[in-house]
Amino acid sequence: MNRLKDRIKEIEPVLTKEFGIDNKMALPKLLKVVVNMGIGEAYKNKELMEQSKKDLMAITGQMPQIRPAKKSVASFGIRRGVPVGLRVTLRDKRMYSFLDKLFSIVFPRLRDFRGVSLKSFDKFGNYSIGLAEHTVFPEIDITKTQPRGIEITMVITGSNQKKSKRLIELLGLPFAKIT
Q1: pLDDT digits (tens, 9 = 90+) for 85-129
Q2: Is residue 125 within 8 Å of residue 163, measured between CB atoms?
């Protein structure tokens, strides 16, 4: 079984006690993880597009969805409908497996990593992390791919930032120490 999925059973009583929640349905829960990758000029080069898709599939274990541009932007040279990004939505086993890899393998591999920012919560309690390069994941061969940015969003039920922070902190997300 998955380590993080097992840890949820230990976390629920802690959250219940800390926040005084009587109803188990009112506890914050990790609903899904959305992984996005911008593909930039890859829409002009099919090989680069395929390599980006393979990389994201290797990282997440799931085939990415191609996201088209919603509107034309002349200054970027993008027309409406042109592929501009890749997206994967992870749930349940794949979500916990991905987060376990992110917390225990990827973050320790980052140079000068002191934790993630506390400012990345939205008003609904969801948390987003941006990585400058996707090559920090162990599945990626640096010699065969071009580094691309990647964005990871954890969607959490219960629209409270404080409860969401405590949930993902107990799951093992290392937050930066405030000095």
Answers
A1: 899 999 988 898 888 888 888 888 777 777 778 888 888 888 898
A2: yes
Neighbouring-strand partners of residue 69: none
* CATH no. of 3-171: 3.30.1440.10
DSSP 170: H
Handedness of CA 59, 167, 27, 163 (dihedral sign): negative
Residues in the chain with pLDDT values less than 50: 1
pTM above 0.70, yes or no: yes
User: What does each C-alpha distance from 33 to 4, 110, 127, 141, 145 come to in angstroms?
Assistant: 14, 21, 10, 24, 24
Residue 50: which residues within 8 A CB-CB, separation 6 or more? none
